[in-house]
Design goal:
By secondary structure, this protein is mostly helical. The protein has helices at 24-27, 36-46, 49-54, 68-72, 76-85. The N and C termini lie far apart (78 Å).
Length: 91
């Protein structure tokens, strides 16, 4: 039987709640994980995030360049699939 208005109870009656403060990273005042010298050293070794992103191959191209000898040894089915997708194989 469905409860009627008189049968309803407040599930939160008599309970207290505490509001927890939001973490710093959600308020916009988070501190960097690494100090400046560590970040500078990483940028010198690996490049900036933009440098790393720009080093990725363009979409639709192969990430691995094959030599002419490697390309000759590919199975015929794979060669047909590569030609079908128009992926450039470097010679």
């Amino acid at each position: 039987m469905a409860p009627t208005g008189g049968d309803m109870q407040d599930p939160f009656a008599g309970k207290t709640f505490s509001i927890v403060e939001s973490p710093a990273n959600m308020k916009g005042n988070a501190k960097p994980v690494f100090n400046e010298s560590t970040s500078d050293a990483a940028a010198m070794m690996y490049g900036s995030p933009l440098d790393r992103q720009m080093s990725m191959p363009k979409a639709g191209t192969s990430a691995i360049a094959l030599s002419a000898k490697q390309a000759e040894n590919l199975p015929p089915e794979l060669v047909a699939e590569i030609k079908k997708k128009e992926v450039n194989v470097n010679k």
